[in-house]
Specification:
The structure is a single chain. By secondary structure, the protein is of the alpha+beta class. It has two domains: 166 residues, Cyclophilin-like (Cyclophilin, Beta Barrel), CATH 2.40.100.10; 48 residues. The protein is built from six helices and ten strands. An eight-stranded antiparallel β-sheet has the order 3-4-8-6-9-2-1-10. A two-stranded antiparallel sheet has the order 5-7. Helix 2 crosses helix 4. The longest helix is centred in the middle third of the chain and has 26 residues. The N and C termini lie close together (8 Å).
């Protein structure tokens, strides 16, 4: 596994990249070797959540500049290796645009975040599992609606309310059947152990690509998440990535 050193204005963070996410690994290594990240800042910092950087527009950006939309002109296909890799504290993951404009959940070509998160109780994780099950149902139903879009539009055009009701009942039955086949989402023992001890952001699991983890310097990420922020969650004083270098 490749290792990368992120030298920040508050200290060093060393991350290891996963071989099971080769497109994200190779892209991050390429950008690091090109010096792409040098001089960029952690432009979005949220306590007990994550620190995000990699926006090329953040280099020497004035405080009133809106950040977060900068990119490299391409995205990367999602590489979910779940549940092996998940959003525990210290996870390195790729930022992306939302599902409404990015249903394939493709990753930003350059922006990333490091999870700081929070510690969860066992009961809270069980509650999250129930919420995940409900979200799974909604996602299945939404996908079926997309697949029957033309039929739905035609029924609406003909004001066939009885037909719409019948189709809805059919899709609901298909939704529950598919959900039963898939099984309810459950956290693994490894996830439960991590989320109830070191913490993380479990609600992001299987939604964003986790492609590495912090192996040294998590205390620096903790320092960064504590800084005062302004509008848009940008630190009031820039925290720069002075140099990002590939170690091996």
């Amino acid at each position: 596994m490749a290792t990368v050193l992120i030298k920040t204005s508050l200290g060093d963070i060393r991350v290891r990249l996963y071989d099971e996410t080769p497109q994200h690994r190779d892209n991050f290594l390429k950008l690091a070797r090109e010096g792409f990240y040098n001089g960029t800042i952690f432009h979005r910092v949220i306590k007990n959540f994550m620190i995000q950087g990699g926006d090329p527009n953040s280099k020497d950006a004035p405080m009133d500049r809106q950040l977060g939309a900068g990119d490299v002109g391409y995205t990367i296909p999602a590489e979910f290796v779940y549940p092996k890799y998940f959003h525990k504290k210290g996870a390195l993951a790729a930022a992306r645009t939302g599902d409404e404009v990015n249903p394939e959940r493709r990753s930003s070509g350059c922006q990333f975040y490091i999870v700081t998160g929070e510690v969860y109780s066992a009961g809270k994780l069980t509650q999250l599992e129930r919420q995940m099950a409900q979200q799974q149902l909604q996602n299945i139903f939404n996908q079926l609606v997309v697949e029957h879009r033309d039929e739905i539009l035609n029924l609406r055009k003909n004001r066939d309310n009885a037909g719409l009701q019948q189709l809805q009942e059919q899709l609901e039955k298909e939704t529950y059947a598919k959900a039963k086949e898939m099984g309810d989402p459950k956290f693994t023992e490894e996830q439960r152990q991590a989320y109830t001890t070191i913490g993380g952001t479990p609600f992001l699991d299987n939604n964003y690509t986790v492609f590495g983890e912090v192996v040294e310097g998590i205390e620096i990420a903790d320092q960064i998440q504590q800084v005062a922020t302004a509008a848009g969650d940008r630190p009031k004083e820039d925290i720069k990535m002075l140099e990002v270098t590939v170690l091996d």
